[in-house]
From TrEMBL:
This is Riboflavin transporter. It is found in: Cell membrane. Belongs to the riboflavin transporter family. Its main location: membrane. PANTHER family: RIBOFLAVIN TRANSPORTER, SOLUTE CARRIER FAMILY 52.
Length: 237
């Protein structure tokens, strides 16, 4: 009974842990209908974000180069996972506080903070699948379902939050034929803070997976990883 309970908890922790893969970048795309009306780039913003996302794929390439130089046995994905999660939390907090701030650059106002934060979040999200798969190698194959389920929720959860926020309400025309959008139930700031809170939950899930014996108690680890854990415990004793 205890093994079954630990196995289910491990499944849930892996699911929550994998929410940090794409939820921030997808969250930005989901919130664009509210953001574009307040930033100087306007509806060119989606094209700019697409270009930023393409450029951010340099980080997965860097990880591959580092792995080739150090060798697979000497490469640890753990620091990169912490980087993805912590920068994800920090990036969402920065977006929540400063997404609307602009600077005069190259003869016009530009959303420098928003675009820089988007670049860093894109850079880490694009590498998340690469390094998270490395981490999942220590678990039995059946737990890959939890990983894919968690990644799938990174698209659904921002959409549900945006739906609750009230994006895409009725548009009316004010004097001068300017479109007026209905006010959302909560602000863009709160939206990004919610995403930061969800990524924080992913951090706690990862800590529990990494630093407790829940996965081992649930018989979730591959045999080679169980042997390594037992050997490490014997060395500490």
């Amino acid at each position: 009974m205890a093994v079954l309970w630990a196995s289910r908890v491990t499944y849930l922790l892996i699911l929550i842990f994998n929410l940090s893969t794409w939820i921030d970048l997808i969250g930005i795309w989901t919130e664009l209908p509210l953001i574009v009306a307040h930033l100087p780039e306007g509806w060119t913003l989606p094209s700019i974000i697409s270009m930023i996302t393409c450029l951010s794929n340099i980080y997965p390439l860097i990880i591959i180069v580092i792995r080739c130089i150090r060798g697979s046995k000497n490469f640890s994905e753990i620091p990169h996972i912490y980087a993805v999660i912590f920068i994800g939390i920090g990036g969402c907090m920065v977006l929540g506080l400063f997404w609307h701030k602009t600077f005069y650059l190259f003869h016009q106002q530009r959303s420098v903070i928003f675009l820089v934060a988007t670049f860093f979040l894109s850079m880490l999200d694009c590498s998340s699948s690469l390094i998270y798969f490395d981490y999942m190698k220590r678990f039995r194959p059946k737990y890959l379902n939890a990983m894919f389920f968690g990644e799938g929720l990174t698209g659904l959860i921002p959409a549900l939050i945006a739906f609750a926020q009230g994006i895409g309400g009725e548009i009316t025309c004010e004097s001068g034929h300017k479109p007026s959008y209905s006010r959302p139930r909560f602000s863009v700031k709160i939206y990004f803070f919610i995403l930061a809170a969800l990524i924080t939950c992913s951090l706690f899930a990862f800590i529990l997976l990494q630093w407790t014996s829940i996965a081992q108690s649930g018989d979730a680890l591959e045999k080679r990883d169980e042997t390594m854990i037992i050997e490490d415990q014997n060395v500490k004793q």
